[in-house]
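The records we work with from here on pair a chain with its fold. Taken together, the tokens spell out the fold as the letters spell out the chain. The record below shows the convention in full.
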Amino acid sequence: MPETEDSGARKNLSMYHNVKKGDILLIPRLPDWGSVAIAEAVEDWNDKEKGYRFEIDDEKKDFGHIFPANYIGCFNRHGKDVSGNIQSTLKARNRFWNISRLSEDVEKIMKNLEGNKESTSVIENIKNIVSEQVKPYFNLKECCDQIVDEYNQKFTASQWEDVLKNVLEKIYPGYEIEKRGGMKEEEHGTDLLVVISGLSNSEKYNIAIQVKNYKGEISDDNVNNIIEQINKAKGYKWENDGKLIDQILVMTSSKKEENPKLIEECKKKDIKIIFSEELKNLIFKSIIESIDLKEIFDEMLQE
């Protein structure tokens, strides 16, 4: 609800305010991993009587979130009738985003669905089945640990900014990721600036990121210096006139359990922290977006 103080719930406010009756919604990963469901909103999301309800459906026993919508059909995200623009926007990791600029691409998919609820061919379904069965055979954590260990050996503190920029660009292709180091960093305390466009192109939202390559427990003096540095982003006048919506501290090598003092101080200033374990997950997601699995499988079969 709009009056909630829960930061996680407030991330859903864009749905509450902007989903209206008749809107077409794309829902990734439904009904299976490689598919995208298409639905039409039956009511306004914020209609208090007929719209979204936070309750469990008596019949379906679902997750406690109900919104009335008509199921139109589903398509394979890599299908022949899916444009590059659609494939790109489906890689976004945020909970909800506006795709009105892709209305023609969506209409083409829906036209191909006429008379058939699914646009997936037998070949596309084979790909979905194979990908689902292959995943359990990879030790993803071990693989990611080894990759990040190599990163830590080869990259200096300043190079980690480039690493993180590359990671975020792979995971969030719709965001602008800017390196902001240099002389003005003394004023804004930001290594990377993530810029998100609002519903109108002139509306911008900024996320300030500070990257630190410290190991182990951070001393009290360094904790204070880190907080003071990244907190400068709050009072800075950004060139794009964007609103600062988040401050994130990335600790490339430090672990959460080693730094209760840093966590406590960052919480006071509403600064989020990404420690090494969570960073590994982000890095691995970016790798999956960029590697050529066919080349890897070919090498495995030749061994």
About this structure: The beta strands are 24-28, 35-41, 69-76, 176-179, 192-197, 204-212, 243-251, 272-274. The mean pLDDT is 81. The longest helix spans residues 140-154. The CA atoms of residues 217 and 260 lie 9 Å apart.
